[in-house]
Write a structure and sequence with these properties.
Elements: E1 4-11, H1 16-26, E2 29-38, H2 45-60, H3 62-65, E3 68-75, H4 78-82, H5 108-123, E4 127-129, H6 145-159, E5 164-166, H7 174-196, E6 208-209, E7 212-213, H8 219-234
Helix pairs in contact: 1-7, 2-7, 7-8
The structure holds zinc ion.
The site of zinc ion (ZN) has 9 residues, from helix 8.
Length: 235
Amino acid sequence: MPETPETALVLFSGGQDSATCLAWSLDRYARVETVGFDYGQRHRVELACRDVFLERLAAAFPGWAARLGPDHLLDAAVLKSLGQTAMTEDVEIEMQANGLPSTFVPGRNLLFFTLAGALAVRRGASVLVGGMCETDYSGYPDCRAVTLMAQEKTLQLGLEADLIIEAPLMHIDKAATWALADSLGGDPLVDLITEHTHTCYLGDRTHRHSWGYGCGTCPACELRSSGWSRWQGAR
Ligand code: ZN
């Protein structure tokens, strides 16, 4: 039985981290819904992975399927209109003069949480769950715990809602994220995450590694693969 009777809304991108958070939520909450965002991302493969992962997850884990409610896909294309990031345009992945990588999409998580908060109120959800992490991450300021704590307060005040943000991966590294998936759903879940989630910044689904698909060299692939190797080494 779940630990709490609440409904959680999981920010589910189709990547490894949010997929793990989805399993974490299904293990914990009585009802779980998912929300994704179409923000004009260059590589649509991540959105395609969402549907397949949800379908396979429900098929493999009937107990979780009973708690899994509808998936919501929201239009956040206004982010693309702001342009000039490596996630939305053909821009080199590099460190910028401001100390942030070009893969950082300014305002992305701030907007996502605002939209998710509004949707949560509509859906009667009291918990927002996100896969943000500040342990071994890309340095995005909107993935830090302090940012999420401030945004949680903003949502509580601005929506007049008892809404909390949970970020179960915030203080663990990528090896521990694989270990968490293993502890929640064993090999079936690890296999689903490996095969049907997407992390690679270049949208590469042609190269299959032990840790999943990707170019193997972009910052996102490096985080995912090094976490996998450390987890495998520690098993
Ligand atoms: Zn890659």
